[in-house]
Specification:
35% of the residues lie in helices and 33% in strands. By secondary structure, the protein is α+β, with helices and mostly antiparallel strands.
Length: 243
């Protein structure tokens, strides 16, 4: 029974990034030309890009940037962190936000289970005293449990969540080119389909461990530091909850 990497996520909230409305076109051009991202929908409310090769999706607007990577062979986050730095660089180059309000990093791993009974039973293994006491109080046995711990020190807050989940909704349809598709359209669809082919079709249930680290009014260029701290905390918790 081992932990499987699920995702990395980075969210940056900023103030006065209104130049998004004027500069998003240049942002897209550089993201596609220099870093091989695939642009998605574009509108005044926000836009999105993807890098299916590594399962990376980006949503950006005048208030925040969110970068998420799922089911990638990038457990230590080196690829994700490099992509994050590249996109943040483009945001500050083109949108010029004046203040970073908050950075948030989420790292998640899971232990796969084939039956719902097994994963719910596993969720009851950790810190059983509280659940047993409440069960006696109300006269009913506990069926499963979510753990949610919050910690804080200085400008940073850390949240640790352990919960049973279902993967029944993690299905991505493969796309097929039209019969008269151009070579560039076929190449683009082939890349987009990499997101679907990376997801293991046999996944049913899992025990999910999420480590969330937030920092208010962080200094510029601190994304690597908060990511490394979140990763360290996540690895420590993986050892605790594999017992």
């Amino acid at each position: 029974m081992n932990w499987n990497h699920y995702n990395h996520s980075f969210k940056q909230e900023y103030i006065r990034g209104y130049r998004y409305l004027d500069k998003y076109g240049e942002f897209l051009v550089e993201a596609e030309r220099d870093f091989s991202f695939i642009p998605g929908e574009v509108n005044p409310v926000g836009g999105n890009l993807s890098f299916p090769d590594t399962g990376t999706d980006i949503i950006v607007n005048g208030k925040e940037l969110t970068i998420t990577q799922e089911f990638a062979d990038d457990k230590d986050g080196e690829i994700f962190l490099a992509q994050t730095k590249n996109i943040i660089g483009l945001v500050f180059k083109h949108f010029k936000p004046e203040i970073i309000e908050r950075n948030t990093v989420v790292i998640a791993s899971f232990i796969p289970f084939q039956s719902v009974e097994d994963v719910l039973k596993k969720s009851l293994k950790y810190y059983p005293d509280g659940q047993d006491a409440v069960g006696k109080l109300i006269g009913m046995p506990v069926s499963y449990k979510n753990l949610d711990f919050s910690f804080s020190a200085g400008s940073r807050e850390c949240q640790i969540i352990l919960k049973p989940i279902s993967f029944t909704s993690k299905t991505i349809k493969e796309l097929y080119p039209a019969f008269n598709a151009t070579s560039s359209e076929r190449k683009r669809l082939a890349r987009q389909n990499k997101k679907a082919t990376r997801i293991e079709k046999q996944l049913s249930y899992g025990l999910m461990l999420e480590t969330i680290l937030k920092e208010a009014t962080p200094p510029e260029n601190s994304e690597e530091d908060i990511f490394e701290e979140c990763l360290k905390n996540h690895e420590l918790c993986k050892k605790e909850f594999i017992k």
